[in-house]
Structures are given as C-alpha cells and as structure tokens.
Amino acid sequence: MKTILDLINPVPFSPLVIVFAFALDMIAGDPERFPHPVRWMGRLITFVEAQLRSRLPKTQAGERLGGALLWVTVVGSAYLLTLAALYLAYKVSPTLSLVIAVYFVWAGLSVKSLGDEAMAVVRALEKGLDEARACLSRIVGRDTADLKEEGVLKAAVETVAENASDGVIAPLFFLAIGGPPLMMAYKAVNTLDSMVGYKNGRYRHFGWFSARADDAANF
User: Fold this and answer.
1) Residue 64, φ and ψ in degrees, nearest 5
2) What is the dihedral of CA 123, 125, 128, 129, to 10 degrees?
3) Which helix (H) or strand (E) holds 41?
4) pLDDT digits (tens, 9 = 90+) for 134-177
5) By CB neighbour count within 10 A (0-12 exposed, 13-18 middle, 19+ buried), where does 176 fall?
6) DSSP states of 57-111 as a string?
C-alpha cells in the first residue's frame, strides 16, 4: 500500500544520496560557473514576473494575484521538473537516478558556503576593522559602518545561524518528507522570497504571497 510519501516522491530514494551530497558540498561548495537549479529559478522568476506584470491590472488585487500565480508557477515547476528528471532517469537506470538525486541534494545544501562566509569575515578582521565591515556588508542587510569588532563578529554569527535554516535545516527537513522534488520546491519558495518578498513600493503587494509562504515554510 502506497503512503503519502510515495505519492509525493514515487522515485526510490537512498540515504546514501545525503552522504554523497554532503561530501560533495564540503569538497566543492557552490562553484559559480556550475549549472545550479537556484540560478535557473532566478531566471524563471524574472521572466514570469515580467509576463504577469504586463498582463494583470496594476491594482493591489491584481498585483497580489500576480504574485500568487508567480509562486505557483515557479514552485510547481521546481517540483515537477525535479520529479520528472528523477523519474525518467530511474526508467533508464537506477544508478543514473541516484547520481541526479545527489546533484539536486548537493545543490540544495549550503554547508560549506556558510562556513566560508563566516571565515571570510574572521580573516578580514585580522587585516583590519574597515575590511571586516566591508566583508560583512556583503552577507548582511544592515549598515555595518559603525560596528565595532565585537559587533562584526556577533553579526557574522547571527547571519550564519539565520542562513543555516535556509541552507541546511529546512532543505533537509523537506528532503526527508518528499525527497529531492520537495527539497527543490522549498528552494524555490526561498528564492522567491529573496527576490520578491520585500515591503517596498514595487513588491509590497506583488511579493506578499511569496513572503508569507516563506514564513510558513520556515515556521
């Protein structure tokens, strides 16, 4: 008898995938020039947003509808395309499906990059406070100009802790529930929030759905 997990991810999943993906992440991290699902999601978000904005009324209701349609399109595409890739690969060879699963899980984790970000701030601090502030400003959203040494270190630790949820804990949670397809769906939710989930004039209404969905996914 099939369980709900079988329906969410009908492709067999091996725990070895997580082991290989973690090892790959610790060795290679996130190479800038390597094809990455999150970068494809970003391009899809930009394209679909432009299409929806040109077709829907520029009202609060119209923008909220557009934001919801954007979310459904991107998250649905991330889930279905990942599932299709794994399913078709499994039909060809279970080993091929395993390799592709490792790729998706590796892409969904950010263990090494989190450590690299923190160490970059520490190394910069050894060269001087101004350089540490500049380095920190690249990974935090707040003003770092007036931070003292203790403030720089505290902000770096807080940022890594916050990003650990998005880059490690939550992806593994959704991986455990629904395999790589649900993990990629979560990454789409997270990417949408980072691109449109703002409270400024452009995204106050259009990004409302994505922001609320990300809050719910990380609750």
Assistant:
1) -65, -35
2) 150
3) helix 37-55
4) 787 776 666 677 788 888 888 787 777 777 888 889 999 999 99
5) middle
6) -SSHHHHHHHHHHHHHHHHHHHHHHHHHHHHHHHHH-HHHHHHHHHHHHHHH--H
